[in-house]
Structures are given as structure tokens and as C-alpha cells.
UniProtKB/TrEMBL annotation:
<dbReference type="GO" id="GO:0050131">
    <property type="term" value="F:N-methyl-L-amino-acid oxidase activity"/>
</dbReference>
<dbReference type="GO" id="GO:0005829">
    <property type="term" value="C:cytosol"/>
</dbReference>
<comment type="similarity">
    <text>Belongs to the MSOX/MTOX family. MTOX subfamily.</text>
</comment>
<dbReference type="GO" id="GO:0050660">
    <property type="term" value="F:flavin adenine dinucleotide binding"/>
</dbReference>
<dbReference type="InterPro" id="IPR006076">
    <property type="entry name" value="FAD-dep_OxRdtase"/>
</dbReference>
<protein>
    <recommendedName>
        <fullName>N-methyl-L-tryptophan oxidase</fullName>
        <ecNumber>1.5.3.-</ecNumber>
    </recommendedName>
</protein>
<dbReference type="Pfam" id="PF01266">
    <property type="entry name" value="DAO"/>
</dbReference>
<feature type="binding site">
    <location>
        <begin position="4"/>
        <end position="34"/>
    </location>
    <ligand>
        <name>FAD</name>
    </ligand>
</feature>
<keyword id="KW-0285">Flavoprotein</keyword>
<feature type="domain" description="FAD dependent oxidoreductase">
    <location>
        <begin position="4"/>
        <end position="351"/>
    </location>
</feature>
<keyword id="KW-0274">FAD</keyword>
<dbReference type="GO" id="GO:0008115">
    <property type="term" value="F:sarcosine oxidase activity"/>
</dbReference>
<feature type="modified residue" description="S-8alpha-FAD cysteine">
    <location>
        <position position="307"/>
    </location>
</feature>
<dbReference type="InterPro" id="IPR045170">
    <property type="entry name" value="MTOX"/>
</dbReference>
<keyword id="KW-0560">Oxidoreductase</keyword>
<dbReference type="InterPro" id="IPR023493">
    <property type="entry name" value="Me_Trp_Oxase_MTOX"/>
</dbReference>
<comment type="function">
    <text>Catalyzes the oxidative demethylation of N-methyl-L-tryptophan.</text>
</comment>
Length: 371
């Protein structure tokens, strides 16, 4: 059989692509080395923030707004709660380019935000100890996504729509057979007219010379009472410290508040380098200084997990066809801020498979920017 589309890597973006392409009437084969959702990629750990006023640059805003529409649709299609509109509080020094980008993107796209001085943040959320000289930007319509439930829903909906799925089956080689894309796995060889490579952290094992660096990351849950819960209007948050380090977190669930550090981490050469949480001495205290300074009422570390980022040099995504391969799309290099876009990136992959023009300008995410 010749498929219309083969998806290599069926985690977040790949799961979305498999569903949207199948929904569009294409014959699709989703392949993954594990069984998504799983903890070997970048989509585990229960939750991911979704921010609309975007500190990484306003070019992302139209994408994330479309992604939000698709997340809301996925809730209706799956019957599962995926989006929690807890609001997001962004905190950073007045001089931070990140916080200024948040403000500018909100202004350009007419997003609802509240700009707060440090004393206003402290009055509204006394759980935070915010230094003078900081700005807060609160996004009331943003929040967090249940990431594993989202992937599970896409996989199930795609299967129900007739998508073929081959899981726990690593891809060993990608090639061409005439005009067709050819994918070799431990279970056999498969062919399609179009190919999506969304293999995440170890994409360089399949595509040589990509400007993508695998980085080991950790996040952890800390003891926190009901004051930090979504029911008490405690928001998701991003915080830039005075030294430039970035932390993020979520409302507490079952008295456990999840926190992670966006920057830093350990470069990896092989999958074995992604050691479990606690294997490296700094894992347990990575967020200690941040918590003592900004959330001093949060208690001890309860448990943690390791994950991975697929970082590009500029931390912007790669969305492009490979050189000389117009029927081979790669979506990678999501650099630790990609899950919120998984829905719209999957829709873009579906447009590619249908030979439709892309709904958004993807030129900023092309490979040739690294040349």
C-alpha cells in the first residue's frame, strides 16, 4: 500500500498531524518508537503552559491563537478536559526584553492583558514575593494544557477515523523509492507520497546535519497547600530572575506545585544521557533559589522527572522541507516552548500532505536561516 502521508514520530506534533490528515480524508500511517503518550520524548509530565502574549516574539502570536482554537475543538471532539484557563502571570525586570515582547505582542494583536507593578502583584497574589523594579503581565485567557491527555485523544481520534498506527517500532532509515518516500522500520518497509518527520529530540539520528542540540532537562513537584491551587485563582507563571534565568510553573494540584527551569540543562549525545531525575546532583536544587526568592511558602521537593529539549541555536522552530526533498517536511527544534503549538503545527503538516498552501508564513522557521 502507498499511503498519502507517513508520520515519523507520533508524539505531540505527529499525533496532531496524524489526526488532522486522516480527518481530511488522507490515508495516513503514524509511526513511533514507543506508544504515545509516553515519557521518552517531550510531551510527558502532565501539563504545559499556553501563553498568548509571546515573549519569544510576536511572530508566534497568530500561530498560538490558531492553536488555541484547535485545542478548544479537541476538547469538544474528545469529550476530555484539556485546557485550563487559569491565567498566566509573566514576571520579569522592567528592562527585560522578554517582558517587553509580551507587552508589545499583546498590543499588536489586541490581546487582553493586565500590566501590573510589583506592589500590585504582591497585593493580588500574596504567595509571590516580587522585588521592586519588576513588572507583571497577567493573561487572563491563557493557562495550561493537559499534555498527555491531548496526545492520547489525538491518537484515539485518529485511529477511530481510520488512521493506521505502528507503535513501539523504531524507524531505522528514511529514503526514496522513485517519487515515493520510503521508511524502513523493524516491522518492514513503508511508502508514501508525503513524509512528516516530527521525531523530536533524536531527529538527527534520521536526518544528518540538522542544527538541533538534544538537552536533558528536569522539572519537579513541590509541596504546596490550597493557596496555590487553581481553585484559589493561583495562575500559571513564568519568571525571569535578575540573572536572566527563566522559571515556569503551574497551579498546585493535590498539594503539589510543578516548577521547572527553562534555560540550562545538560547537552546529550545519546539517549542514555537522559538520566532519571536525581541522577545529577543539581537536579534536586535547581529551583531552590527561585522558590526561596519568589515563592517562599512552597515546601520541599516531592518528586521530579527528566525530559528533553530539541534546541536550535536561536531557539526558534524548524518548519521546512528538507533540501532536495519537497515531499519531506520536518518539524523540529521546538526548543522547549513547542507543545502549545502542537495542534497548529499538526494542521500545517496536514496542509502539506494535501498539497495546500500553508495557512501561515513559515519563512521565519526555514532551515536556510542557519546558512
Amino acid at each position: 500500500m502507498v499511503y498519502d502521508l507517513i508520520v515519523v514520530g507520533s508524539g505531540s506534533v505527529g499525533a496532531a498531524a496524524g489526526f488532522y490528515a486522516t480527518q481530511a480524508g488522507l490515508s495516513v500511517l503514524m509511526i513511533d518508537s514507543a506508544h504515545p503518550p509516553h515519557n521518552q520524548g517531550t510531551h510527558h509530565g502532565e501539563t504545559r503552559l499556553i501563553r498568548h502574549a509571546y515573549g519569544e516574539g510576536e511572530r508566534y502570536v497568530p500561530l498560538v491563537l490558531r492553536a488555541q482554537t484547535l485545542w478548544d475543538e479537541l476538547e469538544r471532539q474528545s469529550g476530555e478536559r484539556i485546557m485550563h484557563r487559569s491565567g498566566i502571570l509573566n514576571l520579569a525586570p522592567h528592562t527585560s526584553s522578554f517582558i517587553q515582547n509580551v507587552i508589545q505582542s499583546a498590543k499588536t494583536w489586541q490581546l487582553t492583558v493586565e500590566i501590573l507593578q510589583a506592589e500590585e502583584v504582591r497585593a493580588r497574589w500574596p504567595q509571590f514575593t516580587v522585588p521592586d523594579g519588576y513588572l507583571g503581565v497577567f493573561e487572563p485567557h491563557s493557562g495550561f494544557l493537559k499534555c498527555e491527555q491531548a496526545v492520547r485523544s489525538w491518537v484515539q481520534l485518529a485511529e477511530q477515523a481510520g488512521c493506521a498506527q505502528l507503535f513501539n517500532c523504531p524507524v531505522t532509515h528514511i529514503d526514496r523509492d522513485g517519487d515515493l518516500q520510503q521508511v524502513t522500520t523493524s516491522d518492514g518497509i513503508f511508502r508514501a507520497r508525503k513524509l512528516l518527520i516530527s521525531a523530536g529530540t533524536w531527529v538527527s539520528h534520521l536526518v544528518a546535519d540538522l542544527p538541533v542540540a538534544p538537552v536533558r532537562k528536569v522539572f519537579a513537584w513541590y509541596q504546596a497547600d490550597g493557596r496555590y491551587s487553581e481553585n484559589n485563582q493561583f495562575p500559571g507563571f513564568t519568571v525571569e530572575m535578575s540573572d536572566g534565568s527563566h522559571f515556569y510553573g503551574f497551579p498546585a494540584d493535590n498539594n503539589a506545585l510543578k516548577v521547572g527551569r527553562h534555560d540550562g540543562g545538560q547537552l546529550m549525545q545519546t539517549p542514555e544521557d537522559r538520566k532519571p531525575f536525581g541522577s545529577i546532583a543539581v537536579d534536586g536544587n535547581e529551583s531552590f533559589t527561585f522558590l526561596r526568592k519568589f515563592l517562599p511558602g512552597v515546601g520541599v521537593c516531592l518528586h521530579g522527572e527528566a525530559c528533553s529539549y530539541d534546541n536550535t541555536p536561536d531557539e526558534d522552530f524548524i518548519i521546512d522541507t528538507l533540501p532536495g526533498e519537497p515531499n519531506r517536511l520536518i518539524i523540529t527544534g521546538l526548543s522547549g516552548h513547542g507543545f502549545k503549538f502542537a495542534s497548529v503545527l499538526g494542521e500545517l503538516a496536514s496542509e502539506f500532505a494535501q498539497e495546500k498552501p500553508f495557512s501561515f508564513d513559515i519563512k521565519p522557521f526555514s532551515l536556510d536561516r542557519f546558512n
